[in-house]
Inverse folding.
């Protein structure tokens, strides 16, 4: 399986289209798939087997709104990697990042849209905007609806986040 996702490739063509991004951002904070302004950009891109209110359909609407919020992209890493890039030399500040990351990591599928919106807003606000591997995130969101696949994604994110934290801790001891 290619790491690229066709829907993200499509969204990347909209990165400079302010009208499209504004329409997609209207979905932020709303239940995925309930904002009519998003339909022209999402409906025709849904897989044929995505039935209304399915996890797949919700994932497409969610990722479209999040991408419109922060279209800065990278082909590397996952959300664990991206959160690790926000770590600060101040350990107290890192505690807040870790709490935020852990809340995202343990999010129930019904609440994922809320925690992801916070996570992407946070990444956008840090270090001139931490870029997101949108292709990887799309695959991971699609997997989040399945318990076994979600567990694998959680472990991947955790490994990347705490691996980087471990690197920082070992530097402090030197």
């Amino acid at each position: 399986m290619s790491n690229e996702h066709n829907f993200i490739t499509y969204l990347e063509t909209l990165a400079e289209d302010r009208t499209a991004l504004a329409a997609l951002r209207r979905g932020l904070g709303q239940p995925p798939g309930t904002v009519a302004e998003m339909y022209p950009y999402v409906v025709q891109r849904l897989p044929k087997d995505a039935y209304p209110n399915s996890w797949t359909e919700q994932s497409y609407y969610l990722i479209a709104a999040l991408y419109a919020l922060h279209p800065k992209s990278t082909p590397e890493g996952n959300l664990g990697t991206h959160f690790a890039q926000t770590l600060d030399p101040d350990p107290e500040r890192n505690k807040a990042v870790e709490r935020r990351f852990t809340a995202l990591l343990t999010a129930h599928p019904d609440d994922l849209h809320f925690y992801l919106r916070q996570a992407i807003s946070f990444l956008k606000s840090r270090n001139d905007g931490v870029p997101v591997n949108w292709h990887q995130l799309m695959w991971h969101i699609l997997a989040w609806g399945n318990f076994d696949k979600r567990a694998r994604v959680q472990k991947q994110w955790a490994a990347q986040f705490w691996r980087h934290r471990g690197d920082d801790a070992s530097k402090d001891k030197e």
